[in-house]
Amino acid sequence: MKKNYIVLGLTAFLLLAGFSSSYAATNVTEPTHFSYDHQDEWEFVSGKMQSPINIVTSQAVKYKGSDLTLKYDKVGTSVVDDGHSIQVGLRGTAEIDDRTFSLKQVHFHAVSEHTINGKHFPLEGHFVHEAQDGRKAVIGVMFKAGKANTAFQQILDAAKSNASGEKGIKIDKLDIQKLLPANLGYYHYLGSLTTPPLTENVEWYILKQPVELSQKQLDEFYQYYDDNHRNLQELNGRTVFIKS
């Protein structure tokens, strides 16, 4: 049976009127048990800056911040099915607006949590990063049906090998770049975690260019999770920025 459980730089933030005063990092410990079937029962720390959102490209404001500089190690430290998604432990850094974030993990949601002009993608990957002060930055990658992806197949194979889920499987040579598009242009906004406790002040960078997976690979992921996405949330006056 398919599982339905899962677990602006600073200047640009100041442009988000009414939100800048709450930018301090907060506790981001996630509970281990929750259901996407009962999202109306989720509790959250606020209600004005939640994720995911629908990104309307025509309303995005040009962002003058930096490009993303990603330096990811080619290793998956631990591949596990954690009951909420397939999650891969990762190492590396992201340089964003003269700040360094450490890469922690990537996990996947079906269908995509964010939408672009009202359109869902078959899958969305979240590369989760954390700075020394506790702030989180998540780089979102949209996946579409197309050619087979060697890196994603490595992850699927590891997840299959680790059917018990008791101990993570390591991928010594993970071709991590295959999970990222060639163009790192992005949409950026200030939001939240998309799972309880839904903590806010999370920096989101949704890459504009999708990455291809084969339909067979998508179907194989759906054997694990085919509905582990959070419902869209209201924008509530926030600005969405665009960086080409």
From TrEMBL:
Enzyme's top EC category: lyase
SUPFAM superfamilies per the UniProt record, alphabetical: Carbonic anhydrase
Pfam (any one): Carb_anhydrase
Record PROSITE patterns: ALPHA_CA_1, ALPHA_CA_2
Family, per entry: Belongs to the alpha-carbonic anhydrase family.
Catalytic activity: hydrogencarbonate + H(+) = CO2 + H2O
Domain Alpha-carbonic anhydrase per the UniProt entry, residue ranges: 32-244
Function text: Reversible hydration of carbon dioxide.
Keyword Metal-binding on entry: yes
Cofactors demanded by this protein: Zn(2+)
Organism lineage: Bacteria, Bacillati, Bacillota, Bacilli, Bacillales
Protein name stated in the entry: Carbonic anhydrase
Molecular function, one GO term: carbonate dehydratase activity
UniProt keywords, alphabetically: Lyase, Metal-binding, Signal, Zinc
CDD domains hit by this protein: alpha_CA_prokaryotic_like
Keyword Protein biosynthesis set for record: no
Enzyme Commission number, as recorded: 4.2.1.1
First and last residue of the signal peptide: 1-24
